[in-house]
Amino acid sequence: MDINEKICVITGGASGIGLGLAKALISRGGQVVIADINEDGAAAAAEALGPQASAAALDVRRSDSFEALADHVYATFGRVDVMVNNAGVSGGRHLLETPEDEIDWVIDINLKGVWRGTSVFGKRMCDQSTPSVICNIGSENSLGFIAPGLGIYAASKHGVLAMCDVLRHELPAHVKVCVACPGLVTSDLSRSSAQTSPRPRLSEAELAMADQVMALGMAPEEAGEMIAKGIEREDFIIPIHPHVVKIAETRWQEIADSFAAHAPYTPDSEKYNVLKIVGKLLSGNN
């Protein structure tokens, strides 16, 4: 996709990866709507980015907030060419110590929030019948990266990848799906997550350590450039940090070894392929 003159919406666009991506899309001639629960931050970011940017309020936990955003964008521009569901939180702790309300909070924002944006905007993008892209932000955790203490976060990001893998086979050909999978990127994610978490998660000392770790991450502008290139290419998976390929290779080898040991493939194996079974039933060829 050529980004020039395209209408782009980014959730959580006031800071971090969202802001870095906004800069990358604007540099390519895109018109960007920065949607964020931090209305003042979104307005300040849009003002700093110039006339190709505007701001809007959004709470990704509410479908009606997405509907209001979509109404606003379509009334203003008439279409959306690129929808980026980027807003997320990093909450979580060791799995056996994670309270259920914190699980609900992470899933509601990281997975259901992505689904809400995809559903509300995706329906309209299907109807507008012009080439468009839905880009949902996953994580290196989507590809198998293991970070102790982030089990529920990892589950939410695996969920984003799995959901999008199905979605790309359900949408019409003119709507493409991308999943960006960044690792460590400099942002205020830890502190912003701590402020909205349903219960205290990190002490000030732990937050200070998290700040030091985040400061060593990739610049948001660099991550934004890589995601923008992936959107241009319309790639399904957009990897950001090269070291994750080794983790993905290890995961795949574990899967391959397990199949070899427990369920080696033979041509007869296709008799349990549910897609082929359903196809035969629908065609009447039993």
Could you list some keywords that capture this structure?
286 residues; alpha/beta; Rossmann fold; 10 helices
Helix count equals 10
| Proportion of helical residues | 40-55%
Structurally, the number of domains stands at 2
What's the pLDDT, averaged over the residues?
94
CATH homologous superfamily label of the largest domain: NAD(P)-binding Rossmann-like Domain
How many angstroms does the end-to-end distance come to? 43 Å
Strand content: 5-15%
What is the CATH-assigned architecture of the largest domain?
A: 3-Layer(aba) Sandwich
Rounded radius of gyration (Å): 20 Å
In terms of per-residue confidence, which ranges show pLDDT below 50 for 5 or more consecutive residues? none
The helix-strand sequence is EHEHEHEHEHEHHHEHH
Q: Would you tell me which CATH topology of the largest domain applies? A: Rossmann fold
Lateral arrangement of strands in the main beta sheet: 3-2-1-4-5-6-7
Beta strands, count: 7
Shape: globular
- CATH class term of the largest domain: Alpha Beta
Structural class: alpha/beta
- Main beta sheet: strand number and arrangement? 7 strands, parallel
Please tell me about this protein's structure:
This protein folds into two domains: 7-241, 3-Layer(aba) Sandwich (Rossmann fold), CATH 3.40.50.720; 246-286, no CATH class. Helix content is 52%, strand content 13%. The chain has helices at 16-27, 39-49, 63-77, 100-128, 151-170, 189-196, 204-215, 220-233, 244-262, 274-283, and strands spanning 7-11, 31-36, 53-57, 82-85, 132-137, 175-181, 237-239. Helix 4 links the parallel strand 4 (82-85) and strand 5 (132-137). The chain starts with 6 loop residues before the first strand and ends with a helix.
